[in-house]
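Methods — Computational structure assignment.
A single polypeptide chain was analysed. Its primary sequence is given first, followed by the predicted tertiary structure written as structure tokens.
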Amino acid sequence: MKMKLAAVVVLYHPDDQLLRNIRSYIGGVDLLMLWENSPLADKEKIQNELAEYSGKIVFLGNGQNAGLGKAYNEAARYAKSAGYTHLMTMDQDSCFVQFEGFRENIEKETDPKVKMQAPFFNQDKIYDEPPFEVRLAINSGAVFPLDLFDETGFFREDFFIGGIDVEFNHRLRKFGYKCVRYSNCNMYHTVGSCRYITMGRLKFEVTDYSPARRFYCVKNEFALYREYPNEYSFRDRWKFFLYQVKDIVKILWKESNKKQKVNAILRGAWYGFRSIDKPYSS
């Protein structure tokens, strides 16, 4: 069966790079679903700028933040009911170079165990290498056959934003499937408003993640430890703990909303450790 590729990009207060990013792959997909996770003030501008592709664009969501998992799942259901065979999940901050190379590799794949197909990302050039299996791949730019979800279940909506891709990678392996990364393309991907500061010869990354993102990343990490204990060594858990300590130091040093962000990390750790199933609240 010929692949019919539907893509979903989840919009949350997008910046002025959105149209450039969409243009980097819209010509190579058969359907583009724009999910509104926040009120979209520039909808008319987007429609006008992408008028040549109007026949393949639909807007979903109601402007309320439903989280990434919910957006992906509803888009998957919509695409499958409309007769599409594959779903590509995209972040609004991701931009492809040579998307046609990625699609070509997806269509050439013959291994029935490959159920998640991902691009090279944030590379300095386009590489021409054989496909290779990876343990983890981010959701942005990843492609899944839509009938996969009938067997594995959908993305975790309770995770809301953090660790959704990690959990699904673990679940794929549990079902005996693979994730493969392809060359002949590149995807530039950013998360949040990362910036770098220097102190002498040292250089530090400051993420400026929102309190909600920090809360879910920490809370969901504990859920991953419980549900997939064999995926994590003591070293993995220790590194995560040290990362949170460093993150708190950088928040107190260089970020705004210090109290709210630190509180979100600590509350996420407490909820995660005690298996408390409550969403984030400011």
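Note: DSSP finds nine helices and eleven strands in the chain.
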